[in-house]
Amino acid sequence: MAKRSVLGLFTEEQVDEAGDALEALASAGYTTTEYEVLTGTPYPEGTFGEAEPKHKLFRWPLTGAACGFIIGLVLTAGSQLAFPLVTGGKPILSIPPMAIIMYEGTMLGAIIFTIIGILLESRLPRLFMGAYDKRITEGYIGVTVTTEEDRIPRAEEVLKQSGAGDITRGWESK
Amino acid sequence: MQEHVQLSQKKINDDLLAGVLGMPKWWLGAVGFLLLVIATGIGAYGYEINKGLGVTGLNRPVLWGFYITNFVFWIGISHAGIMISAILRLTQAEWRRPVTRVAEVMTIFSLMAALSNIMFHVGRPWRLFWVYPYDFSRGLFMNIRSPFVWDPSAVMTYLIGSTLFVYVALIPDIAVVRDRATGKFAPKIYGMLCLGWRGTPRQWKLQAIAGILLSALVLPVFVSVHSIVSWDFAVAIGVEGWHSTIFAPYFIIGAIHSGVSAVAMIMALAMWMWKLDNYLRPDHFDAIGRLLIVVATTWFFFFFVEWIFALYTLESPELALRELQVFQAPYMWLFLAFLLTSFFIPVPMWLFKSVRRSPGLMFLSTILVNIGMWLERFLIIIPGLARRQPLQFDWGSYHPSIVEILVVAETFAFVALGMLLFSKFFPIIPIFDMKEGMQVREEIKIGRRIVPASIRETP
Amino acid sequence: MASHNASGHNEEHHAEGMYVPFTSQREVVNDLVTKHDKISDKWLSGVAAAGFLLVLGVIGFVMRVNDGVSDRMVWAYYAMMFSFILTTASAAPMVAIAPRLANAHWRRPVSRVAELWSAAGIFSLLLFIPMLWILPPLTDGRRSLWFYNSDDPFFSKVPVYSPHIWTTAALLSLAALGIMLLWLSAMPDLALMREHSTGWKQKWSARLSGRWIGTTEQWNMLHHRMGIVGALYFMMLVFVHYLVSTDFLMTLVPGWIDSLYPLTHAANSLQAGVATVILTMFFLRKFGGYEDYFTLDQFWAMSKLLFALSLLWFWFWFSSFNVFWYGKKPSEQAVLKYLMVGSYQPAFMAGFILSFVTPLLVMMWNRVRKSFWGPTIMSVAVLAGTFFDRLRLYVAAWSYPGVGDYRVDKHEIPFDSIPAANMPGVPDVLIVLGVIGGAVLFYLLAARLIPPVSIWEQKELMLYKLHKAYHRTEVLVLGKPR
User: Fold this and answer.
1) pLDDT in tens, B337-362
2) Is residue B212 within 8 angstroms of chain C, CB to CB?
3) What one-character DSSP code corresponds to residue C420?
C-alpha cells in the first residue's frame, strides 16, 4: 500500500502546541518513525519532546581514513617501485615523503567518507518531499505524519486538535 | 555581542536572499568589469603560451617570479577560510556565524587562483597532469620524493575537502532558496541541489555535528597545505635564505595573518554591497581586530626568529642575501614597505577600539596587510634567487613584464568574480546559522544588568 | 534547577556536563574555605615524600659539586632537569591565562590550579643559579644569539656573559610575572580568608589582600590587570624558551642551526604544561577532596587541548626533521645522527612514542577524552615523553666534547665520530628525583597559603552558568559578561 503523508503547520510561537501534537500522535498510536517535526532552524534537542536521533556517523571518517591510508601507501610505494629512479641520494622508498602523501590520502578519504556519511545519516537525498510547506523555512513549524493511507485521516484529526493551522497532504512515493 | 539585533526568520530570509532573488544595480557592472580584466589576463596568457616563457621577466637565475609569489599569496589567503570557520566553530565562538561562509568560499576561489598560477608559471602546462600516477603503459611515474608532487596532493585535498565542507553547510540554505525561488527551473535546480532537505531534528543534528567534525578534519589539512608549500622552498639547500626549518610554521602564521585580514576586508565589502548592517555588526569587526592583533604579533615573532637564525649561522652567503634584502635598492624600499604595511601601521591601529569597530578603517588596514604579505613572499623569493651562485656564468636580474602583471591582475579579478557569482546563486551569509544564533540567544538578568548569553547543548 | 542541586553527587549529571553542586554562594565559600583550612594527612604525606626526594636531590647535587664545573658533561642531567621544570611547571599557568582571555567558563575551577604552579617558578630560579657557573662564556668560539666574535672589532665588544645576563633577567621577569599573576588572581580569595580564617592565615591574607573590598572598580581593575599580566607572562614564557633553547642548548651542539627549535621548545612546554595541570587536577580530585569542582567538563576540555597540542608536537618535530633530512647537508645530517638516530635513539623513540604516537592513538576516541582516567594516563605519558625528549637533547648537548673549550671546532660535528651517550650515574638519578620532588614541594606549600580552587571564579561561574527549562527540554545557558 502506498504511503501518504500529512503536514500540520504551526506558527513560530506555537512551539508548545507542536510538542503537544507529537505527544498526541504518540498516544494515538503512531510510532516515532511515523511522525517528525520540521523546522527552519535548529532548535535545542528535545524542544518538542522528540526522540533523540541516533546515528553512527563516527564510523565513516575512520573507514575513510583507513581506505585513504591504504591507497596512499599503495600509490607511493607502488609508483616508486614501478619506476625506481634514485633522486637526491634518497632511498627508493623514502618514508618522510611517503608519509606526506599518505597523510593527505588519509585525510581526503576521511573527509569524503564523512560527507557521504553525513548525507546518508541525514536520510538524504530524498526523492519525494511528501507533505511540505514553504513557510517552514520562514519560521513555521511543521509536524508531519508519514503512514499508510488509511491512517492519515486520524492523524489529520489529531493535528487539528493540537492547534495546527493549515493541513496539507502529500505523496511519499509514486 | 552587545549590539545584537533580534530579527524574525522571515526578515532574515528577505535580507539575506536579496542578492540571490534580486539583483543589485551594481552587480552587472561589477561582473562586466571583472570579466574584462580576466579577458585581458587570459589574452596575455595566450600570448605567453604562443611565444614561450621568454615574454615574462624571468631570467637566470631568477626563475621564479610574480607567478610563484602570487601562488604563495593565494595559498595564504585560502587559509583564512578554515582558520576563521573551523577554529571558531570548534571554540563555539558566537561571532563566527555571519563570517564563516565568506571565509570558506574565499578559500575555494583563492585555491583555484593559486593552482592557476602554477599553470601560468610552467612552460608546458599541458604536462601538468604528470604529477598524477597515470602511466601504466610506459611504466613512467612521478617522483614522490619531490615537493612538487606533495604540493598538488595537499592542495587538491584541501580544495576537495573545503568545497565539500561548503556544500554540506550550504544544504539547509539551498532549501530556503528553493522555497523562495520563482520561475520554471530555479526551484527544481535548487531542489535537486539541496537533496530534498526538510529540516527534521535528525538533519539538524547531523548538520551541527558536520560543522564540528569537518572542521576538525579540515584543520590538519589546512596545516599541511602551507607547510608543504613552504617545503617547496625550504627542503632543498640551493638557496641559502630558504633552507630554514621555521619555514612551515612561519608560512602558516603568515597565511593566517593575510587570510584573516582578507576576511575582514571582504566582510566590510559585503556589508556595504548588500547592506548587511544588521548582520555584520561593529562587534564582529572588533572581534576580528582582536584576533588580528594576536595573529600579527605571533607572525612578527616568527619573522624575528627567522631573521635572527639567518644571522646566527654567520655564513657569508646567508649574510649577503640579507644584506641584499635590506640595504640594496629596489629591495630595500620594498622591505621597508613590507614592514610598515604588514605590521607597523595596522597593528598600532588595531589597538584602538574605535578603529576595530569601524568597518572603513578595518578595510583599509587589512588591505595594507595584504599588500605587505604579498611583498613578503616577493622578498623571500626574488632576492633569494637573484644572488649569484658558484659556477654561474649568466647572471641576470628580474623585472616583471606586462604579461605577468596582467596575468596576476587576472587572478585577483577571478577570485572577486567567483565570490560575486557565488553570492548571486547562494546566500553568502549562512541563513540557518544566523537563525540559530537568534534561536539560542538568551539573556541572564543579574540585578539591573542584563548579560548576553547563549544556549549551549553539550554534544 | 532544584533537581540538580538535590542530586548533587549524581554521576549522570557529570556525564551531561550539566553539573552544579551548590545552590548558594555561601555554600561554595564554606566548602572551599573549610577544605583549605584543614591540614589533611594526605597533604602531610605528600609534603614528606616530596621533601624526602628533595633531600636526595640535594645529596646528588653536592656529589656533583665535588666534581667541579670544568667538565660540563657531569652537569648534563642537571641542565636537563632545569629545562624540564621550565617546560612543565612554568608553562602550567598558561592553562589559566589562555582560556581566561578566551572567556571560557570551564576553566574557572582550573585556573588557580594552574597559576599555583608559578610558585614553582621560584624553584626554577633556584635551579638556574648553578647554571650560571656551568654555562661557559662565549669565548669558546661557539655560535651564539649574541654574535660574539673575538676577531671582529665590533662584535668582540659583546659581553662574553651575555647568555647568562639575559637569561637571568628573563627568568626573573617570568617568575615575577607568575607571582604577580597568582597574587592578583588570589586577591579576592585572600580578602575572603582575611574575614573567614583564623591565626597566621588570617594575618597573612590580611597583609596580602590589601584594601580589597570588592568594589566594581576593583573588580574591573582586577580583570584588566589579570589580562595584561597574563599576556605578558605568555610573551615572557616564549622569550625564556627562546633564550634557554638556544643559549643553553642549541649553541652547544656544533652545526645545529634549527630556526624552528626555539618555538618547538615553547610549543612542547605548552603541551607539558597542560599535562601537568591535568595531573594536578586528578590528584586534587582524588586526594584533595575537590571532586565537586573538577568534573568531566574540565577533564574533557583539557584533554581536547592536550590532544591538539600532541598533534602539534608532531608537526613541529616533522617541520624541522623534514628540512634536515631532505637537505642532506653534512652538518645537519651529523646533528640528526647525534640527537636522533645515534646513541640517543632510545630516548628519542621514547619521547616520540609517548608525546605523540600514544596520545594520537588513544585520545582520538571521544570516549577516552571524556573521562577521568583517559586524560590522566595520557598526561603521565606526555610528561614522560617530554622528559625523554629533553633528556636526549640536553644531555646530548651538554655531553658534547669540547663545550667551553676553544680548541674544539664549534661549527660542525664530524659525521664519523659521533660521541657515545652519556649514561646517568647515581648523582644524576638523585638529581632527577630531587628536582621533581622540589617542584611538587613548592606547589604543595603554595597550595597551603592560597586556596587551590579559585573561590571567586567559582562564585562568578554560578552567576553565568544556568540551567533553564526550554519548552520540553532543559538547556544550559552560558552568559558572556565581557
Assistant:
1) 999 999 999 999 999 999 999 999 99
2) no
3) P
